[in-house]
Amino acid sequence: MVSEMYELGNYEFKLEEFFPRKAFDEITRIRVDDRSIIEAEARRRKRRAKLTKDGKLCILAADHPARRVTKSGEDPIAMGNRQEYLGRILRVLINPEFDGIMGTPDIIEDLLIIDHLVKQRGGKSFLDDKVILGCMNRGGLAGCSFEMDDTFTAFTAERIHKMRFDGAKLMFRLEPNEEASGKTVLYCANAINALNKYDLPAFLECLPVEKVEKSYKVKKNAADFVQVVGVATGLADSSKNTWLKIQYCDNFELVSKSTTCPILLLGGESRGDPTGVMNDFISGMKAGSNVRGVLVGRNVTFPGKDDPYAAAGAISKIVHAGYPADKAVSHLMESRGKNMDFLSRYF
Known about the structure:
With 347 residues, the chain is of the alpha/beta class. The chain has a single domain (2-7, 16-346), classed as Aldolase class I (TIM Barrel). Helix content is 40%, strand content 16%. It is built from 14 helices and nine strands. Strands 1-2-3-4-5-7-8-9 form an eight-stranded parallel barrel, surrounded by five helices. Helix 4 (36-44) packs across helix 6 (105-120). The longest helix is centred in the middle third of the chain and has 19 residues, at 179-197. The relative contact order is 0.16.
């Protein structure tokens, strides 16, 4: 088990040392004075020849605030501090072992601006050769009466294609007793059809949920996931570009056997340190040959007091190199604090 070997000691990640306020403030200056930089950087970005280099992916999920989700750990608005949130995203992306990012337009545009500023001042691009996925549906705002009617309020297929991104993320949550849940399934089918016209991969998060008081809880059992996967892979005019994003659960080998589509594991809510999700990923990657990586968010950007760079590197080693718990933890602890001046030296 990862937790048995993991030690934090006196270490604590300090965001300002990596992503100072003056760097953050530069983003607004560009948005006001020269917003054309966003599309120009998207055109200049060096893309991968193929989506994966070895058939596997580690992607950072950075779309939570757009759905009114800002909680991480015990802090209800941790992801609402944009300097903190963006800085932690950047910390993950500068790790060469991590494949890329999935986010809403505001996040991706902030990253393109920072990449421009770093290159302008003599630095190296952190977005070249990375996978960039655009998030499409965020309209089902958490805690609202219309939460299950998850409309497409972010990226469109046309915009993702124009910006030369590498694919899209979309989501439906299946609640049999909610009519709006069925509407969202239809929205997703239409979106995959639109993405197929551009031959763009669709990363479809499909979750079986149940209403619990004023919120929705994921039903973390293999039987429910098997059923929802059958729905997800049958959507749209072709499944050739469909990847699935699914939460790990017990007996996950049954879930992997329910489809031939590639699967990425999601991380769920932040647990205060990276050990729990690392254990899930180690087990999940062994569940079937179609489990091809992770699409993880808060568990890597907010790994307690630990360094997002180090957490990202350890998870990447689990996915791409098959690291067991002891090697993954060692890699994490050895990577803390590396390249802390990657951005700050230019601001």
